[in-house]
Design goal:
This protein has 288 residues and is α/β, with parallel strands linked by helices. The protein is built from nine helices and twelve strands. It is 45% helix and 18% strand. The strands form three sheets. A five-stranded parallel sheet has the order 5-4-6-3-7, with helices on both faces. A five-stranded mixed sheet has the order 8-9-12-10-11. A two-stranded antiparallel ribbon has the order 1-2. The longest helix is centred in the C-terminal third of the chain and has 43 residues.
């Protein structure tokens, strides 16, 4: 792995590694190699990375430090110092790619600002995996991460996305899945196609397809589908279809029609106002 050169000599490299989202055997060979070679391993959960290493049959020889959301900012500064001391730093999350709804962004930003080389080991991602198996259009999509928790912000975000023609991908907790689906039926409509991807690549993987209304009913903890288990469990990725080309064109036509109607109304109002003003001027002349 190449290293950058700084004012103090040779610097280390910051390596972001994609971690399996379910099966350890999905780990890239380069991840296995770097787990055994990197001088510092920054992990979202140090216990989980050690368990992953054991599953992969590799011994971590470097120093393992925690790197989760609460300590992310402070730890980023410490990791940059390690990099400037010439050590390679490997960043891993519990699952997926660092920086994608997981810690990683801040240390990358700090490393880039310091002129340190940043590279990545591609790996599994719930985002692209769910998108691929969803059966919804993949030519254009947007990743929204976890929806805002505050009700007002959620309504605003969903209202904005309702008219977006792109396929939309969300992460969501099992506990909030049902309320989220109910809110999406209000913003996007009950018939919008969507897919729930649960526990992707794991033993209990489940992919449920339907309309937003059907999925909201399926995810209802009090409904027949979930009553026996007490509700949906596991890691959830939600894929929602965009407004659709036909619907988008129809909405554009409606908007254009409304704009023309408003323009005609404004023109008529302007003419009437001009006529009234003219009458007033004539009347003044006659009165004189």
């Amino acid at each position: 792995m190449g290293s950058g050169h700084g004012a103090q000599g040779v610097w280390g490299t910051l390596i972001l590694a994609g971690v399996p989202i379910g099966r350890p055997e999905d780990a890239p060979a380069r991840l296995v190699a770097e787990l055994g070679r990197a001088e510092v391993v920054a992990a979202e959960d140090t216990r989980r990375v050690r368990r992953l290493a054991a599953d992969l049959g590799v011994t971590i020889t470097g120093r393992v430090v925690s790197y989760y959301d609460v300590v992310e900012t402070r730890r980023a500064e410490e990791l940059v110092a390690e990099l400037q001391a010439g050590k390679d730093v490997l960043v891993v999350t519990d699952a997926g790619m660092p920086g994608v709804s997981d810690p990683g962004y801040r240390v990358v930003t700090a490393a880039v600002a310091a002129g340190i080389l940043v590279t990545a080991i591609p790996g599994p991602s719930a985002l692209t995996t769910a998108l691929a198996v969803s059966g919804l259009p993949t030519d254009r999509f947007c990743f929204e991460g976890f929806p805002p928790r505050k009700p007002g912000e959620r309504r605003s975000r969903f209202a904005e996305l309702a008219a977006d023609p792109r396929t939309q991908v969300f992460f969501e907790s099992p506990r909030r899945l049902h309320p989220t689906l109910k809110e999406l039926t209000q913003s996007h409509g009950t018939e919008r196609p969507a897919v729930i991807c649960r526990e992707l690549t794991k033993v209990h993987e489940e992919v449920v397809r339907g309309t937003l209304a059907e999925l909201a009913q399926w995810a209802d903890p009090e409904g027949p589908d979930q009553q026996a288990t007490g509700g949906v469990r596991g890691e959830i990725t939600l894929v929602v279809g965009g407004i659709g080309l036909a619907a988008a064109k129809a909405a554009a036509r409606d908007a254009a029609r409304e704009a023309r109607r408003a323009a005609r109304f404004a023109e008529r109002a302007s003419r009437r106002a001009g006529g009234i003003a003219g009458d007033g001027a004539d009347g003044g002349g006659l009165g004189g």
